[in-house]
Amino acid sequence: MYYGCTREDAAKIGFDDNYIYDVIKGEADEKRVSFVQMDRDTCLEAFREWEQKQDKVRY
């Protein structure tokens, strides 16, 4: 995983990502974020390519 700015950096310019981190961790008090599944067939193709990859790095 590569990233540049921190969630604190984002908060300084008005993007509060802390709630999203709490949702992912299961620590959010309310559900303000909805999860929508879309384009599953395309995503499954990416998974199939990953399964066939010989030099993959597991994380």
Question: Which blocks of ≥5 consecutive residues have pLDDT under 50?
Answer: none
- What order do the SSEs take from the amino end to the carboxyl end, as H and E? HHH
Radius of gyration: 16 Å
Shape: extended
**Structural class from helices and strands?**
mainly alpha
SS summary, helix count: 3
Please outline the major beta sheet. Answer: none
- Beta-strand percentage? under 5%
Number of domains: 1
List how many beta strands DSSP finds. 0
**Distance between the terminal alpha carbons, to the nearest Å?**
10 Å
Mean pLDDT, rounded to whole units?
Answer: 84
Helix content: 40-55%
What quaternary form is this? single chain
What does the model show?
- The protein starts with 6 loop residues before the first helix and ends in a 7-residue tail after the last helix.
- The chain has helices at 7-12, 18-25, 40-52.
- The chain has one domain (7-52).
- It has 59 residues and is mainly α.
- The protein is extended and about 40 Å long.
- This is tRNA-specific adenosine-34 deaminase.
What's the structural blueprint in terms of helices and strands?
Layout lengths: L6 H6 L5 H8 L14 H13 L7
Task: Describe this protein with a few key phrases.
59 residues; mainly alpha; 3 helices; extended; tRNA-specific adenosine-34 deaminase
Summarize the structure.
The protein has helices spanning 7-12, 18-25, 40-52.
